[in-house]
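Blackboard transcription, Thursday session:
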Amino acid sequence: MWFQSIENSGSKTITFTLLRTFTSFETFVNYNIVHIFGHSSICSQMKHTDLLILGCLQCMFQTSRVRHVTTALSVPSRFSLSSLSFRSTCGCLRFYRQKHRNTSLDQMASSFEQMRANVGKLLRGIDRYNPENLATLERYVETQVKENAYDLEANLAILKLYQFNPAYFQVTVTSQILLKALTNLPHTDFTLCKCMIDQTHQQEERPIRQILYLGNLLETCHFQSFWSSLEENREFIDGITGFEDSVRKFICHVVGITYQNIEHRLLAEMLGDPLDTQVKVWMSKYGWTENEEGQIFIFNQEESVKPKNIVEKIDFESVSSIMATSQ
Amino acid sequence: MSYQTEETEEYDPYSYTNDDYLHTGDPKADLAYERQYEQQTYHVIPEVIKNFLQYFHKTISDLIDQKVYELQANRVSSESIEQKIYEIQDVYENSWNKLTDRFFKTSPWPEAEAIASLVGNGECVSLLLFLLPVWAQGGPTLDQRFESYYNYCNLFNYILNADGPAPLELPNQWLWDIIDEFIYQFQSFSQYRCKTAKKSEEEIEFLRNNPKIWNVHSVLNVLHSLVDKSNINRQLEVYTSGGDPESVAGEYGRHSLYKMLGYFSLVGLLRLHSLLGDYYQAIKVLENIELNKKSMYSRVPECQITTYYYVGFAYLMMRRYQDAIRVFANILLYIQRTRNMFQRSTYKYEMISKQNEQMHGLLAIALTMYPMRIDESIHTQLREKYGDKMLRMQKGDLQVFEELFSFACPKFLSPVVPNYDNVLPNYHKEPFQQQLKVFAEEVQQQAQLSTIPLLSNMVPWFPPLYTTMPVQEFRIQLLVFKHKMKNLVWTSGISALDGEFQSASEVDFYIDKDMIHIADTKVARRYGDFFIRQIHKFEELNRTLKKMAMSGASTIATAATTTTRAT
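(Written on the board underneath:)
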């Protein structure tokens, strides 16, 4: 409704004022601004697109919805807005953002790095066995989960603290650690975690049992079963950013070392992709091409996998001593 | 000397009687009590032992005096100290064991009290008492364990909390034994306290009231403090990059006592973390030690062997089979070569033999999981000991895997104080069960592979590909094979945790649509090396014969022995 009112207003100042009033409303902030700009038909009709964009940018910046700022700053190129004032304001905003390190954008990027540095200090020496540090470490796992980051050493330290202090054991954190370990396949982090989790927890806690089962499926390459199991246990992996992508990366790794040509259908099954949306994405990531018959060419394995005949080479030095002593 | 007088005021924890005599702090009263007590002891100390103890005590005291003098004159080490250390080493390794064998085979050494009265108090007493093999027949009692713990605490307190570096210089062998024994006793105690079935109420009460004794945190604290105090990590870093470790050693680290204790503590941490199941951290603590090079720190053979055993085991559990195989092969070759050096004491020799067997077992497991070529001599030895076991493992017999694992694995333990009211009968076995389970799962994941004749390394050429597996399942197993054969392998760099994914399998394949293309690696028999060696030996023989012919029969005897040794 507010959109129409802006559209209908004729003058620039009114547009801008209306926008400013709306910036104070929470609801406005929650609206996906980029979505609006996506409707290019509306924008082209509007007279004061540049002001609208400016206002939105300002509002987003103030309320620190930085993700939207980044996308919004790419809008000008799409709409070829060339007014000088507009561009200069965008420039100022960028500069302002960079200058003030407290803004969310920097916060998000550096928050993980900062935490990693802090945690690194905690894990030095005898301090890593101090259960008082558990709270910080558990928060660190949360950060990893949200930001699709990973730190094996810190996670193992948490498991060790749980081992030393069983009263502090937390199922949710342990499940998250296990799932994150799965995202690092083919590394054997999952096995390392299993070695440090007590048997009773492994058998009795439902999320852990399920996750161990999923892990087993992945390690034994039963990918189709994995995807169907995952559907039934969706609630465990909710919130773990990038989990499915990491798993698919692992699957592509295994396919990559095994196959030279593979059927499209088979690959789709392994990627858990009944609607065939993911296959193209992963093919482009790895540079795999598809021919007319539906066969996807992976890699010229013939080059690397060849029968080898290792023949002994006897070099001159070893024989020279014999030749010297022989008459 | 101040360090000697402060000892007399301490609580004497070595009273075996259970009476509540507490040190009153009044020297006269205590001395009177001690004299009285001594008369009550029924142990008669043989003259030889008395002499030995006094000699030993004198040597160490002299050494301490010398060291203090050296420190005060600002010199770190000198020849006379080295001479003394050599004497101490000799005493420690040879005389000690001979005397134990001769006099104290079945009964423990005389009580600490009696010895103390002979040689007086002082730091030396702590050290001497440490040497006492306290275990009488049937394992140590709870009291003995507690006392031993206090003994260690005193010793480490002295070393770590002195104002300056302690004026002590001991042979490396002894220092290694201190750390080794320390962890061994911790291990023993942790398992002991979990077995509450045969304990009396009193003992359980005692355990319950003293949770700090042999607490995992204190053990970790000691090891970490030794590492920190000696700056050993920095020293190793500088050493491996070619610099001079003395420059970063710091005040304590410069003395070989601290430096070596620091180094041995790193190995101690490796061991401790492995016992608790944290393999990543176990290898991480050694990150500054180059495991593949012989360095100046690795002169104590038992230390080397223990290090490689635990590193190999950690690699095995981390599914880095290629690394594990390499490590085990290395150390087994080393033991083969230096075997005759270990005749010193029966106890040490037994331990090394046992570890030798265990490592062969682990190597057998690793080779089954990841077939690859290893040194011929080790391979022959392995086939002798575990030939039939390996065959059964290759066929997928899970039980053999588990048996071998149980024999060869370290004695895992739990760091937590048990709840004495409610201890299940097999509680002490739980940590082991846990690790066994993880291992068994790993084996099972690869078990299916063994049913496919193609992938067993016993078959050299293209075998008839018969299998009753459905195609779908077969395809999955091929993926599993490829996945499992790619191990993280250490290639370069210092930290043993680094690595790249590599596959060293002899049989390799790839799938092209519906066709499997197999690539077989055939290694031709190496004969060049063998021939060259034999030719050299023959030349040697020829030369010796010629010499014999010229110099006559008198040299025949000596020549004969030289040739037999050469072959």
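Lecturer's comment: Chain B has 23 helices and four strands.
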